[in-house]
Each structure stands twice: as structure tokens, then as C-alpha cells.
Write a structure and sequence with these properties.
Layout lengths: L11 E5 L14 H15 L4 E6 L6 E5 L5 E5 L4 H4 L1 E2 L4 E5 L2 E13 L5 E8 L7 H4 L10 H22 L6 E5 L6 H12 L7 H10 E4 L13 H7 L12 H11 L8
Parallel strand pairs: 1-2, 1-9, 2-8, 9-10
Antiparallel strand pairs: 3-4, 5-7, 6-7, 7-8
Helix pairs in contact: 4-5, 5-6
């Protein structure tokens, strides 16, 4: 069932790890979030049929204060999510280490100069049904270690697409990734294409269809600005997924080589 914010057909989904919408909403850290917020507001002004997805952060922000002697102190920022966002009834889940992590979302509507709304959905894992560590996956922006970050990106990318489906957004034709944090959304799209064809493994035709749907932009075009994860993190987060790519398919095998940056030959 579509949410009330989906009265207009949406064809573009915009994903960003952080989005700046209001000064009193600690949903962003810096330039990336400001860029995302400006993009969404411009879309609303232009009446673009877009929807946006991010994560809901309750911790990790603080107010800095300077004393007369120049020393700095920090005070944690506490904010009431319900004052800014509306909880949606839709639910979805992702699998991490074979655990089911349930997700809900909260909606914020960005209104353009001519009254057009672009809904922004903040994914939230802080539910009683989840284990304590999983509830914290949407707790802190850029917090934790590298594996925590990978799990956050699973929630944003895979969980984000699944939540959009649960909300009724089934006619999307473009998925815009603002930086690489949401890159795992491509795995969800690949799985959907394979399922449409009655398969469980990905082939070349699925890759081409998903490639045509995805858009990637970056404002940090240097290696240090992009996440890289060791293979053991992926096999830990996604156990028993060795058949996801059909390595007898040439395109799938080439994709795997590029991902692994390996020269290994796979059986044809």
C-alpha cells in the first residue's frame, strides 16, 4: 500500500547517507548532506517526480561550546524525532549474518516553491524486535568500525529499495546514489531482475538492465573518499550467497573479477 506521500507517481529514487533539511534536525554532518538537501529542494521546486532515502540517526551529534580561556566542551544533541518526522506503517527487513533485521521508516516532506512535495524517508532499525547491536545500526552517522559501516550501507542500499517497495513505489526507473554509500542497492535490483526471469542467479542481461537504471555522483573524487571493504566482511554479512552470481555467465564472471580486482578465471 502506498503511503500518503505517494499521491504522485515517482520515477526517481535518490539515496544519500546524510541529508540536511533543517538546522534542528541532526541528520547530516557536512557538505555531502547539504548537497543532498539542496538537490531535494531543487527537485521539489522543479516538480520532479522524486523520492529520497536516508538513515535516521539519534546519536553522535553534539554542540560545541568555547570558554573564555579557549577550551572546548561538547554537549550531546537530543532531538525528538516525532516533532519533525511522521512514522509510516510500512515495514521491511534485511538479512545480516543470517539474522533478520526489521526496518521502519519516518517521512519528511520537502515542499517546493509551487507546493510540490518530495517525500524523504529515514530508515530506522531501532525496533524492539531487533537485537541490541542491530538496533544501533541507524544510531550514529559515520560511527563504529568498518564492519559497522558496511552493515549501515546494507540497510541504506538493500533496505532502502525494499522499503520503497513496501511503501508502494513500484514504478521507479532511476536510482541515484549520492556517493557510494548506497551502492548495495544494485544487489537488490539485480536480485529483482533475476526473480522476474525465474532465476536465483544473476546473469549478464540482469546486469545491463540494472546498469541502465543506476546513476552515481560524487563530490569527493579521490580514493580516500570512498569505502573499501575486505572480502571477509562481505562473506560475514552475506553467508551462503555463493550462487548469487552465475559465474558460468561471461558478464557475471567479468563483474566478479572487477569487484575482486582479480585475474582469476572462472569455469565457462
Amino acid at each position: 500500500m502506498a503511503s500518503q506521500g505517494n499521491s504522485t507517481k515517482r520515477i526517481v529514487a535518490y539515496f544519500s547517507m546524510e541529508i540536511a533539511l533543517e538546522n534542528d534536525m541532526p541528520s547530516y554532518s557536512g557538505g555531502l548532506g547539504v548537497l543532498a538537501g539542496d538537490t531535494i529542494r531543487a527537485a521539489a521546486d522543479l516538480r520532479l517526480p522524486m523520492v529520497a532515502v536516508s538513515l535516521l540517526y539519534r546519536k553522535g551529534f553534539f554542540t560545541q561550546r568555547l570558554s573564555e580561556d579557549g577550551s572546548q566542551t561538547e554537549e550531546p544533541v537530543e532531538w525528538a524525532v516525532e516533532k519533525f518526522l511522521q512514522e509510516e506503517p510500512a515495514r521491511t527487513s534485511v538479512s545480516l549474518e543470517d539474522r533478520r533485521v526489521e526496518l521502519r521508516c519516518w517521512r519528511y516532506s520537502v515542499k517546493g516553491v509551487r507546493g510540490f512535495d518530495v517525500p524523504v524517508y529515514f530508515l530506522d532499525a531501532d525496533l524492539d524486535s531487533n537485537a541490541a547491536n542491530d538496533r544501533n545500526l541507524t544510531g550514529t552517522l559515520y560511527g563504529g568500525d568498518s564492519y559497522y559501516r558496511l552493515c549501515q550501507e546494507v540497510v541504506l542500499g538493500i533496505g532502502g529499495v525494499r522499503m520503497l517497495r513496501a511503501l508502494g513505489y513500484n514504478e521507479l526507473t532511476r536510482y541515484h546514489m549520492n556517493e557510494g554509500h548506497a551502492a548495495l542497492l544494485s544487489l537488490q535490483l539485480l536480485g529483482e531482475e533475476a526473480a522476474k526471469a525465474g532465476r536465483t542467479s544473476i546473469r549478464g542481461e540482469d546486469i545491463e538492465k540494472v546498469r541502465s537504471k543506476c546513476v552515481f555522483t560524487t563530490h569527493t573524487p579521490v580514493p580516500a573518499g570512498h569505502d573499501r571493504f575486505p572480502m571477509e566482511f562481505l562473506t560475514r554479512a552475506f553467508p551462503n550467497q555463493r550462487e548469487f552470481l552465475d559465474l558460468k555467465d561471461t558478464s557475471s564472471a567479468e563483474l566478479m573479477k572487477r569487484v575482486l580486482q582479480a585475474g582469476q578465471d572462472f569455469p565457462g
